[in-house]
Amino acid sequence: MTSELKQTMDKATDALGGMAGKMTAAMTTEPDGFVENAAMGDMYEIAAAGIALRKGRSDHIRMMARQMIADHTTSKHQLQAALEMNETRGVAPPPRELDTRRQTMIKHLEEAPEDGFDTMYLDQQVLAHEETVTLMRGFEEHGRNPQLRSYAAGTRPVVERHLAMVKQMRAQL
Amino acid sequence: MSFNPLNERGIPLERQLRNWSELNTPPYDPNAVHPYTRCRAIFMNGIEVEAIINSHQFARHTADVGVKQKLALVRRIEQQQQKAVNWLIPGNETTIERTIGYEQVAVDLTSWLARQEPDPYLKRVYEFALLEDFDHLYRYANLMDLMGDRMKAEEITGDLTEILPGRPTIFEHRDPHDDLRRPMTLTAADTQSVMNAITIVAAEQQTMNFYMNVGNVPEDPLARGLYLEIAQIEEQHVSHYESILDPTLGWLTNLVLHEYNECWLYWSCMQTEVDNRIKALWELHLNMEIEHLRIACEMLRDIDGIEAESFLPDAGMPEPMTFETNKEYVRDVLRRSGDFTAWDAQFMPVTQLPPDHRYFEYQKVVNAGGAPSEMVINRHRADFGQEYRFATQGEHPIESLREQGDHDSYPYHQVVTRELEEV
After folding, report:
1. Distance CA B211, CA B189 (A)
2. Quick one: which of A59, A107, A147, A164 has the fewest CB in 10 Å?
3. Is the pLDDT of residue A117 over 80?
């Protein structure tokens, strides 16, 4: 398979996965599902940003990656704190590993050619942040746990700004 | 022994105004006052200051003239209350003596709140800052000795609070991101958690304001340096504690919670006060606050259509906030978390921070040239041949923080020294 064809197929796989993820996110109102999705999102962002620090071709990509690591570490810590509170008693703990879909996305980043990395990374960032914004907005409005709704309310503006930033950067490539 | 101020009747507002001589409260005798009476005076001054600041902030954010008028009327009384309370503190109690009193409030208030706190995460929030305020008491106590004050710190605190190193102040300086915690929600939190948080924010805010304003009173550069260094930590503590408040509350709901909190605390002071004259002041102010609460509840009902009973407990507050000794509790917290730091909303041993964590860059910048909190101990050792400590329960629970301990083996010291060589 040529490199170009692989990149195209990887991008299509990521896009299909992103669409499915966004649909699931929109319907998430139960605490366990929310925690799983939110935690998975943070884990993916931190892992992807780590690769971007190594492989990113531009200073802007690397700067963005550092911000992603910082901000998604903050949201990870906020979620962990929320899960230590009485308000979330009985909610299942977050997963410790990425699901297959996000593992595949990470694999695509690792395998991306040097001249195609920035595009692939930003394409994934748009998909991932659209999914996370959908998750946070939906749960803030309809979620069935007040503390996790509060967490969503605190995280949503940050990921909305991320989404605006990655869309702008993608448009400028 | 519970108390529900919603079931009580207070003094009508038009009868609450007092004249100057009524407000000019005879102060306590600093040589005879019970340490916890001093604590209650310092503490309730902070509570009244927060009531006033909150009312001013509300007034700046509402266009409703009727609300502004009611806020102004109640606030005028709160200001009178603040004077009557704060004027209990005598003019012949020096600034450093008063500072020792402030830190005793911090240690024994925070300990009580932590012990009563029903939420496990919020308990960790209190325990984290407790060890820092405990250390401030120790640093100021050493300064007090160096300043040649007529008293020793233990004469201020009595036999009630030990004076030992906590989490060393030099290591408390953190990046601002790492003082922000997870807020509770009024909907799901226990009322005790809500009241605890409003209480501690007011207390730490007052301490911060106090050091911000009196830290430049000493002439000695080391004293001035210590006050400004610790004042910066109190800013961290205010950020830390205010971040656990529910940030989504409406102004009127917040006002009701503030007034309810004042009622609970004046009732607590009344229940536990040993000085009969001052007990009568707490009772008078409680009866005023009950009316302030009624007014706030009425506004909440009329304007927002919310009944205060919908979020306040039927049985009221179960226990009075009580100043009492917490020596074993503080030692236990030291043993369990003396080497903890914070990363965003989480607490963990400092050894778990990655080498490139922003904590190390912050430490490198602010502590360049040395920290006054360390210098004050070094100077005390140089001048007196030893540190000032007051221990009643045996040696320090952390070996590396004992006076003759291996200070270099304290985890913070090891980690920071190692990483700052790399930065």
Report:
1. 32
2. A59
3. yes
Per the CB < 8 Å rule, is A86 touching B183?
Answer: no
Q: Does position A2 have pLDDT exceeding 90, yes or no?
A: no
- Which residues of chain A have a Cβ shorter than 8 Å from any chain B Cβ? 70, 73-74, 77-78, 80-82, 84-87, 145-147, 149-151, 153-154
Q: pTM score > 0.90 for this model?
A: yes
pLDDT tens per residue, range B67-125: 999 999 999 999 999 999 999 999 999 999 999 999 999 999 999 999 999 999 999 99
CB contact under 8 A, A150 and B246: yes
Instruction: From A36, A141, A161, A16, select the one nearest A99 (Cα to Cα).
Output: A36
Alpha-carbon distance B47 to B69, whole Å?
22
Long-range contacts formed by B399-402: CB under 8 A, 24+ apart? B401/B164, B401/B165, B401/B168, B401/B338
Residue A86: which of B118, B177, B248 has the nearest Cβ? B118
Pick from A73, A78, A146: which is nearest to B187 by CB? Answer: A146
Compute the Cα dihedral for B121, B126, B129, B130 and give only its sign.
negative
**CATH code at position A153:** 1.20.1260.10
Structure tokens at B104: 């005793």
Please count the CA atoms within 13 angstroms of the CA of B308 that sit on its side-chain side: 23
Domain count, chain A: 1
Interface test with B, best of A71, A87, A151 (most B CBs within 10 A): A87
Chain B nearest C-alpha distance from A43 (Å): 16
> pLDDT by residue (tens digit) across B324-338?
999 999 999 999 999
